[in-house]
Amino acid sequence: MLVITPIKCRASALALGILPVVLFLTGCNDTVNVVNGSGQPVGLLVDGQDSGGQLNDRAFVSAASPLNVGQLSSSPQTNEVIGFTNDRPPKYLSAPWTSGSDAFNVDFRPAIGIPVTVWIVKGPFAEQRQHAIEACIRTSAIWHNERMGIIFTPFNIIDATADPQAPLHYAFPNGDVGDVVWKPLRDDIGFVAGQLNIYWLDTVNGGTGSGWSNFGAQIAMGKNSGDELLSHEIGHAFSLTHVDSDSNFNVDNIMHSASNTRQYSTEGQLFRAHLNPSSILNVLYSARLGEVTRSCSYSNTATFLCPAIQKRVWADGGFPPN
Ligand SMILES: [Zn+2]
After folding, report:
1. Measured between alpha carbons, how far is residue 321 from residues 32, 217, 265, 314 in Å?
2. What is the fold, at CATH topology level, of the domain defined by 30-107?
3. For residue range 87-135, what is the model confidence (pLDDT) as tens digits?
4. Which terminus of the chain, N or C, has fewer Cβ atoms within 10 Å?
């Protein structure tokens, strides 16, 4: 029998007030006005040109709107702004700067809600259901703090422990083998189309603390996986890859492969999670229809189209803004 338990899992800090927007004059500088923010500070990555030449990903942070971004003019490269703030997806803004005083709105949309289904394959069900809820809460808190702009809604938990085929799937192999290892989970345990499906098993690639993503609609989680591991596996589903060998990162980043202190995401990662066409936000959820996409590989070098993977508007994990 399947027991469906819809959970509303939200970090308590998500309940934020919305502050009124305060307008003031800023001379002949160009400004970016925040619309539909969450009341939290806003960070911008700005492309354009000023008297010093072309700017690429110049960072601005302010708790007040509008933000003064200096005297910008049209660059022969890119003229655009990416806005970041808590509980809102990163917002792309085309900004055709002129020689005059320009004022553009960065108009945030509400957080993107993604429905997910969790299949508890290896019990005890009550214990592993609680485990999944804790992972949901931790991931939601990381997404809030790190300005991912995504919420689980709903987070459905299904009891598959009594499925006669469940024991066949207690030990999940290396998930990079291919769909030959993922399809049996769909066929035997279940699968909700159009959603992320998370299977809580016993071992993953030999470890009870491990997890695996197929960079798509399926994730396998070991019985004793850390609560923060879900943020890592879903990071893969958002197209992100490991940062282990990159000195711009440490174990505190969500995409480190061996850690129990994952908590941070750079703005370079947020940008890719949302704008990469291969992210499940675009492929599976079609959550950004009509919005700009960019194919940005893992790179420490910024281009005009893609920020560097380690680009930080705010400090994190001991690394300063860059
Ligand atoms: Zn990984």
Report:
1. 20, 33, 12, 5
2. Immunoglobulin-like (2.60.40)
3. 999 999 999 999 999 999 999 999 999 999 999 999 999 999 999 999 9
4. N
